[in-house]
Amino acid sequence: MSNSTTKENTTQTRPFAVFNTVSRSIEPLKTALPGKVSLYCCGPTVYDYQHIGNFKTFIFEDVLVRSLRFAGFEVNHVMNITDVGHLVGDGDDGEDKMLVAVKREKKKSAEIAEYYTKIFFEDWDKLNLSRPSIVCKATEHIQQMIALIQRIEQNGFTYVAGGNVYFDTSKSANYGHLARLNLEKLKAGARVELDANKRNPSDFVLWFTKSKFENQELQWESPWGRGYPGWHIECSAMSMQYLGEHFDIHCGGIDHIPVHHTNEIAQSEAALQKSWVPLWMHSEFIMVNAEKMSKSKGKFLILDDVIERGLDPLVYRFLCLNSHYRSQLNFTWDILENAGKAFDKLKSAVLSFKASFGSSAPALLPEESLDDTAAALSHRFMSAVCDDLNMPLAISVLWETVNSKDLDSAHKLTLLYRMDQVLGLKMEDWAEVSLEIPPEIDVLLNQRAQARKDRQWARSDELRAELQQLGYTVTDDASGQKVRRS
Ligand code: AMP
Ligand code: ZN
């Protein structure tokens, strides 16, 4: 469904194409207001640590925001914090995830939300993600959710059963379009025992008044009785609150397509009585052993695991940048270590370009004074980014720039710093850190350097392993051994 107020972008912004889950195709970006993008991204459920899989999605969203800004758009980025209503099962079954954590940690849900939100933003900053323009908490927007449910009710899309307010998906003309759901199949395969109150298996709860759990602490007064909201309504209510009833892009991970985003669309269009968001973008999963990394399955890695392994959190960001956001990424420590090696190589190259300016600041060049080789590389980088965030191609242009025989350090740094506006690797901050090497480590390093000179590779590997055990990671490049604390 297209928005009648949509206009082509003006010339200040570059042409930008994106894959729209609605049409399953790459489309030119059109925004309601020329040069401006209003963007809503589903945020974390703060009942546990966010795993690195979650952060793959947040990295994709950050790269989208940075790329849009790079292409000249002004971006208004809103993200929610889910601190109520997200049940363990997507089909309104299971406990509220926050209450699972209340039992697990024997704390108040507000304390749990505060703790995991704090850690979430610490990790967010370590990954150099840009802070959204607005971050909004579900528990602070209950009145907006109630008002939206009332609007949906007035338009005849709800029923009350067993004390809960349900959305009647059979009233929604286009229900399931985003996910290409087959409603007949859904009906045939429905597990009726899950919720006997539902008239259709795809119906969902807008407001729970019959808490399934005793002493449920998350409750508010409402026209339907004391209770709490369903999960989906929060994103419709908060996005409309901060971005208006229509906005340009809605993002999330692909797990949200069949239920959460499908239901957000159904209820929002039922309230508005017209089409809602024209462009939906979704990122693919991080997988571990061919399974989605997920909190509920209990097998997940967090950013601290990466740090404990002696790797810079930005190495994880770099790993994600090397694959397309619409491709699955099979996580292994090996691929992360390899990304770490490539990251170190990039860092050494950038540091050597910086070193060529001695202690003075690098002389960066204005865009119009780039020579032809540099201008072509810059153009190719920009084109890759603006073509549905083709970051693997963009990164290959980055390496061409690094390795070019035709560019001097000033051209290289100028291009790399520009590229880093999208990549977010903090290249401008990179600096040689002088590491205090204790004498016994220095002895081992010298022995290893000698072993390499004598082409005694097995001995050199042995010494590297010994140094690793003592907390020093050694890598080699053309200029010799590089050592860092692991
Ligand atoms: P949650 O905290 O579960 O609400 O998820 C936060 C974000 O992470 C959502 O956009 C999810 O779609 C996304 N997500 C969840 N699991 C993964 C995964 N394994 N890989 C990538 N994104 C994920
Ligand atoms: Zn959401």
Report on the structure:
This protein has helices at residues 52-70, 97-105, 109-126, 142-154, 183-188, 232-243, 257-272, 303-308, 313-321, 333-355, 372-386, 391-403, 409-423, 439-453, 457-469; strands at 17-20, 25-28, 36-41, 74-81, 134-137, 158-161, 164-167, 204-208, 228-229, 249-253, 279-283, 286-288, 291-292, 329-330, 472-477, 480-485. 42% of the residues lie in helices and 14% in strands. The longest helix has 23 residues, at 333-355. By secondary structure, it is α/β, with parallel strands linked by helices. The protein binds adenosine monophosphate and zinc ion. Adenosine monophosphate binds next to helix 1 and strand 10.
Q: What does the oligomeric state look like here?
A: single chain
Largest sheet, in brief, is: 5 strands, parallel
pLDDT < 50 stretches = 1-10
Number of helices: 15
The Cα radius of gyration reads: 26 Å
Give the names of the bound compounds: adenosine monophosphate, zinc ion
State the strand order across the main sheet: 5-4-3-10-11
Helix content: 40-55%
Straight-line distance between termini: 53 Å
Number of strands: 16
Short structural summary:
This protein is α/β, with parallel strands linked by helices and 486 residues long. The protein is 42% helix and 14% strand.
